[in-house]
């Protein structure tokens, strides 16, 4: 059958077969006879070592530059999600969120440049961007994962950094008729006792079944994976330097931070994953496969502690301490009618994320030379995030009928780089005194996000068996993507003062609990943790407002209707919107099989043509002028806003993406790869949303402003890869060079001669005299300040080396020893300007660590299976979340995991695992280490459990 034919190179390699999967599963450890005079060593390996050889086989016989993790590897490593497992591959690192890998970086590029598929189908995201959140995908339900570092024409476009392909089980490929696996692990976090109400214990549980029926023509796979884990951390977060003032009268501004936070984080995370796959193959020439994958991830989290807010440019500052031109310490006090303050925070966040993926694939060998594959799919994701905030301020006396805010706020602090700062707060004793502390504000800010894509693709391959071209592949794919976000708000009270119309709440003893910081944070003041439900019930005796009642109900809550509220009711309208993206792609690719200088050469050459039609709903601020299109636009509460004109605006473009992959077999063991391609990554889907304000002068001059833009084009790059790979009987060694010529980035800029009307904005034609002829003409052009594609670009280049070996030649028990080591070096001329630390500082490209090291040492002997893995990445730039998202420099980190297992028999295995063995924190800073960003400590995770299979 056409689909089972191998290239000449593949046949040669399979004949040699050194270290291949077929050999790894042989029962005899001795050399075996070959059809030629050559004898080849066969190594018998099982467990983790076997999974490594499977991964090497996939890399070796792939027609693109790739890295792979096998099913055994994913099932056995101590990974909550596949993100951690992927970071063990060369050139791949992770950004930790809550102590665990959620976003992966490939070759120095952040998650926004990574495209992901499941069973070859595009996946949408709960992040509001394009990159998927890998912690949404349980490792127990994924049978293999591959990272394609070079593309080919038949792969879906979208990954400048690379493409991650996740695969679920294909039952009819199993050797056994029926298999069943149960996995149960208890969990404990050793920092939970530092966090008030922190949960210490959790669990992981999974069940999977694979079976073949009707003479192996029907296969069924079912899987369920549950994760329940505590989420705990203790953190300091420095906030951005967002104002400046000449503090020392030297005619140069000094930059002042917004403040800082010291908090306990706690909560719990529950993820339930479901998998179903039905495969029908009535004969060798036809198969039909249906897949279902569902993952539901619910997170309940709280943040408790205090937030220090400076007064900005008007702050009263004495004894300043500087780092360059930025303030990193001093004495700050509240000015008359100022807002310098310390807020005791009791925030309560709830996030409900869901991912659904469905697909149906028909694979038909029409004859011995022609194969047809038709695939339809649906992927959708939704995120319902509720950010509930409860702030408290210090009163002079909370026991009186009309309490007054205590104005005597004095803050003494000095940042300490990547160590905790020294602070002194004049009101510290009041933070745990119910006779002084009062609740001043409650707010809830729902954010409902949905993203879905429907797609269909058709692929045809023609087996030609010509001297150079082995086969031709052609195909087409159409996808329709729809993204929406809905925002709303409920606010009561004030976070900076006591309101008379919405007076503060006096706390009672049954509502609160005194909390002390421990460990490294023990020098910081105690505070009151407040029971949210009891406080709200006392504050709203006539009944809790509807947004609180419908908390977590799955719909965006309404803007509060309180007549005394100061909430901006237009906010939810401006923050909400829709994005529409339709893509039609086609490709032509030739698979090569020939010789060069007498050596086998294989690979592919092709081109992919992609046409994208993108648009978004737009609200233009026309000042309520009906002549300029002002409409009555209701918000979620039904309140009418008359200031804006609604429209749909967008763009359409076509890209041609050529690619070349060549693999030259120097010997049976050595092979040389070269790859070249043009690649694209579309902008984050939320950046295509549109809200525009513009003004029209009396002479018809138009000026507009929009923070995002539906006219953004993709990131583009030309990339080149060269690698040399050596496969020997007990492992492999590979070295690679790569170069990416980035053509564009997104930045804010001015489009000087923008045609507003042609783009769909509601502006009238203005008749003005032509500047040269004086003849009246119609104009609708003007200047638009918006997000644009910067064509400056630059290179990203680097080198990788990876080594894997099982030391089978060692005597006795040492024969089970093995190692896996990889090192990646990446550099770039691309730089970003970051001003969150005050004076603008040039920083590296987001996600780029110059040095990434991954090392695993493992030992398997007589049922014992143990290994330790260390992952190091040098400093990099990424985003953190304070009050708002902030781009900061992250310090280097070394994350160590350990696992020990014992196989009692063929069915039962015991496992003990430790994640983050050295309790590695996350540390970040604003451009220079003296300006502290995040210091976050997560703790170690311990797992103890067993796997039973038959």
Automatic annotation (TrEMBL):
Transmembrane spans? none
**Mitochondrion listed as a keyword:** no
Q: Does the keyword S-adenosyl-L-methionine apply?
A: no
Secretion signal, residue range per the UniProt entry: 1-24
| GO CC, alphabetical | cell outer membrane
UniProt domain TonB-dependent receptor-like beta-barrel: residue ranges: 450-917
Q: Which domain of life is it from?
A: Bacteria
Identify the residues that the record assigns to the TonB-dependent receptor plug domain, covering every copy: 65-162
Predominantly, its location class is membrane
Q: Which UniProt keywords apply?
A: Cell outer membrane, Membrane, Receptor, Signal, TonB box
Q: Where in the cell is it found?
A: Cell outer membrane
Offer one Pfam family short name for this entry.
Plug
Q: InterPro entries from the xrefs?
A: Beta-barrel_TonB (IPR000531), Beta-barrel_TonB_sf (IPR036942), Plug_dom (IPR012910), Plug_dom_sf (IPR037066), TonB_rcpt_bac (IPR010104)
Gene3D superfamilies cross-referenced by the UniProt entry: TonB-dependent receptor, beta-barrel domain, TonB-dependent receptor, plug domain
Xref: NCBIfam families: TonB-Xanth-Caul
Similarity comment: Belongs to the TonB-dependent receptor family.
What protein name does the entry list?
TonB-dependent receptor
């Amino acid at each position: 059958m056409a689909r089972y034919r191998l290239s000449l190179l593949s046949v040669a390699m399979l004949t040699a077969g050194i270290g291949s999967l077929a050999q790894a599963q042989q029962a005899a450890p001795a050399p075996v006879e070959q059809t030629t005079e050559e004898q080849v060593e066969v190594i018998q390996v099982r467990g983790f070592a076997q999974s490594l050889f499977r991964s090497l086989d996939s890399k070796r016989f792939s027609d693109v530059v790739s890295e792979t993790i096998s099913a055994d590897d994913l099932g056995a490593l101590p990974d909550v999600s596949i993100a951690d497992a992927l970071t063990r591959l060369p050139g791949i690192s992770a950004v930790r969120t809550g102590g665990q890998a959620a976003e992966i970086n490939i070759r120095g590029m952040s998650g926004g440049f990574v495209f992901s598929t499941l069973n070859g189908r595009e996946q949408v995201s709960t992040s509001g961007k394009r990159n998927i959140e890998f912690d949404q995908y349980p490792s127990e339900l994924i049978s293999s994962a591959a990272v394609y570092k070079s593309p080919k024409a038949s792969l879906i476009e979208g990954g400048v950094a690379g493409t991650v392909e996740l695969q679920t089980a294909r039952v009819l490929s199993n050797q056994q008729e029926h298999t069943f696996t149960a996995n149960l692990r208890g969990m404990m976090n050793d920092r939970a006792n530092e966090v008030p109400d922190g949960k210490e214990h959790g669990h992981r549980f999974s069940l999977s079944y694979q079976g073949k029926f009707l003479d192996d023509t029907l296969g069924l796979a079912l899987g369920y994976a549950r994760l329940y884990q505590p989420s705990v951390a203790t953190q300091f977060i420095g906030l951005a330097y967002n104002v400046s003032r000449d503090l020392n009268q030297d005619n140069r501004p000094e930059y002042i931070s917004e403040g800082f936070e010291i908090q306990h984080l706690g909560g719990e995370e529950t993820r339930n994953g479901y998998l179903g796959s039905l495969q029908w193959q009535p004969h060798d020439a036809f198969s039909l496969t249906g897949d279902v994958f569902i993952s539901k991830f619910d997170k309940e989290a709280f943040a408790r502690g205090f937030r220090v807010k400076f007064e900005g440019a008007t702050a009263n500052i004495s004894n300043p301490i500087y780092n360059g031109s930025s303030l990193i310490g001093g004495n700050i006090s509240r000015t008359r009618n100022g807002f310098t303050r310390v807020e005791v925070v009791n925030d309560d966040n709830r996030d409900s994320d869901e991912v659904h993926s469905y697909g149906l694939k028909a694979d038909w060998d029409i004859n011995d030379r022609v194969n047809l594959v038709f695939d339809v799919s649906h992927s959708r994701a939704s995120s319902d995030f509720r950010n509930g905030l409860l702030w408290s301020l210090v009163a002079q006396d909370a026991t009186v009928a009309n309490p007054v805010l205590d104005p005597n706020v004095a803050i003494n602090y000095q940042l300490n780089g990547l160590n905790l700062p020294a602070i002194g707060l004049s009101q510290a004793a009041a933070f745990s005194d119910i006779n002084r502390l009062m609740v001043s504000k409650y707010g809830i800010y729902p954010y409902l996000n949905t993203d879905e894509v429907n797609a269909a693709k058709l692929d045809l391959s023609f087996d030609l068996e010509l001297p150079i071209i082995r086969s031709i592949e052609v195909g087409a794919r159409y996808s329709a993507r729809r993204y929406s976000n809905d925002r709303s708000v409920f606010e009561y009270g004030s976070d900076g003062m006591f309101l008379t119309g919405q007076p503060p709440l006096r706390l009672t003893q049954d509502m609160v609990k005194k909390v002390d910081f421990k460990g490294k944070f023990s020098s910081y003041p105690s505070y009151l943790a407040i029971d949210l439900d009891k406080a709200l019930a006392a504050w709203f005796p006539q009944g809790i407002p509807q947004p609180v009642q419908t908390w977590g109900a799955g719909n965006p809550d309404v803007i509060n209707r309180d007549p005394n509220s100061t909430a901006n009711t237009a906010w939810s309208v401006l923050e909400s919107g829709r994005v529409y993206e339709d893509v039609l792609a086609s490709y032509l690719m030739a698979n090569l099989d020939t010789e060069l200088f007498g050596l086998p050469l294989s690979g592919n050459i092709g081109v992919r043509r992609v046409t994208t039609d993108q648009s978004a709903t737009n609200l233009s601020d026309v000042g309520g002028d009906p002549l300029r299109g002002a409409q009555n636009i209701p918000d979620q509460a039904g309140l009418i806003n008359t200031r804006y004109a609604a429209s749909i605006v967008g763009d359409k473009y076509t890209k041609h993406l050529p690619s070349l992959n060549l693999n030259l077999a120097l010997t049976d063991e050595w092979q040389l790869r070269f790859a070249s391609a043009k690649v694209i990554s579309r902008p984050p889907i939320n950046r295509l949303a549109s809200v525009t304000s513009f003004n029209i002068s009396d002479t018809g001059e138009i000026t507009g402003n929009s923070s995002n833009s539906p006219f953004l084009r993709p990131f583009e790059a030309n990339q080149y890869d060269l690698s040399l790979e050596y496969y020997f009987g007990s492992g492999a060694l590979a070295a690679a060079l790569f170069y990416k010529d980035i053509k564009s980035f997104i930045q804010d800029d001015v489009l000087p001669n923008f045609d507003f009307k042609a783009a769909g904005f509601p502006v009238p034609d203005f008749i003005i005299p032509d500047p040269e002829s004086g003849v009246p003409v119609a104009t609708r052009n003007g200047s638009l300040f918006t997000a644009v594609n910067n064509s400056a670009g630059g290179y990203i280049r680097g080198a990788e080396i990876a080594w894997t070996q099982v030391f089978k030649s060692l005597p006795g028990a040492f024969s089970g020893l093995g190692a896996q080591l990889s090192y990646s070096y990446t550099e770039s001329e691309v730089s970003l300007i970051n001003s969150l630390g005050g004076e603008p500082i040039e920083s590296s490209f987001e996600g780029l660590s110059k040095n990434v090291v991954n090392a695993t040492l493992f030992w398997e002997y007589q049922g014992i299976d143990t290994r330790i893995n260390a992952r190091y990445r040098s400093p990099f730039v990424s985003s953190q979340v304070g009050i708002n998202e902030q781009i900061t420099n992250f310090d280097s980190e070394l994350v160590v995991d350990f696992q020990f297992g014992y196989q009692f028999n063929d069915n039962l295995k015991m496992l003990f695992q430790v994640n983050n063995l050295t309790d590695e924190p996350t540390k970040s800073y604003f451009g220079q280490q003296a300006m502290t960003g995040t210091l976050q400590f997560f703790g170690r995770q311990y797992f103890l459990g067993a796997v039973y299979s038959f």
